[in-house]
Amino acid sequence: MGKEKPQLFDEWPEVYDRWFTTPIGSLVKQYEAQLILDLLKPKQGEMILDAGCGTGIFTLDILSIGSTVIGLDISLPMLIHAREKLRGYPFQTVLGDILTLPFREDYFDKVVSVTAVEFIGNAKGAVKEFFRVTKRGGSIVLATLNSLSPWALRRNAEAKERHTIFEKAIFRSPDELRSLASVRGVVKTAIHFRKEERMDGAVGIELEGKRKNAKSGAFVAALWKKP
User: Fold this and answer.
1) CA distances from 158 to 5, 49, 152, 183 (A)
2) Pairing outcome for strands 91-95 and 219-225
3) What pLDDT sits at residue 13?
4) Topology of the domain covering 15-225
5) Based on C-alpha coordinates, what's the Rg of the chain?
6) Structural domain boundaries of the chain?
7) How far is it, in rounded angstroms, from Cα 142 to Cα 128?
8) CA end-to-end span of the chain, whole Å?
9) CA dist., res. 106 & res. 128, Å (int)
């Protein structure tokens, strides 16, 4: 699988955002956002690329710290949704493909991409582009859904039954994610509880999974530094 057609995501913006307003979705968002920020460590004044920014749901956390963000996505409806949501912040949108980023080399202080690479077959090509546009010493953070997690098994089953967007998804394990770059990286996971878990139980499970540095969390993120 190579490039995905923009139409794959065009009907998703409102549905995507709505899920994160549910009790379990809100908790998932909290832990995923924290992991991204812990790895990316955005700073005030930095220029950051959010590759596959979608509706900007994770972009807002970065902007709130004071970074300037360019959000790139292949879906115009997603970008329009993000632009409206982030009005007033130092945020610009670019319609484009992750595999052919329309930016010169060494342009960004950091690059982040959240839950976009699972829709790209040539993930190594995407990571190569992220490195190309990042300044030396800069960070690249890539997050996706973990193939070792029960959440991935559920997504696969639902996709086959209902023909959802995840029929086209490629989930990757922590080791597979780590192998996408030639330099050594740090890989961590989050969301160690199941979707059906009670809220009070989910918090305890998450803390225990983090303490054990468990590799089976539903959300897996890698950090690389550009030499």
Assistant:
1) 22, 32, 10, 35
2) unpaired
3) 56
4) Rossmann fold (3.40.50)
5) 16
6) 15-225
7) 12
8) 30
9) 12
> Side chain identity at 182, as an amino acid letter?
S
The H-or-E segment that residue 206 falls in is: helix 199-212
- What is the distance between the alpha carbons of residues 2 and 123, in angstroms, rounded to a whole number? 9
Query: What is this structure's pTM?
Result: 0.88
Burial 49-61 (b: 16+ CB within 10 A, else e): bbbbbbbbbbbbb
What are the angstrom distances between the C-alpha of 171 and each of 109, 123, 150, 152, 154?
28, 11, 12, 7, 12
Residues listed for the chain: 227
The token pair that represents 202 in the structure block: 């989910």
For residue 9, the model assigns a pLDDT of 60
CB-CB contact of 37 with 30 (8 Å): no
Query: pLDDT per residue over 63-119, tens digit each?
Result: 999 999 999 999 999 999 999 999 999 999 999 999 999 999 999 999 999 999 988
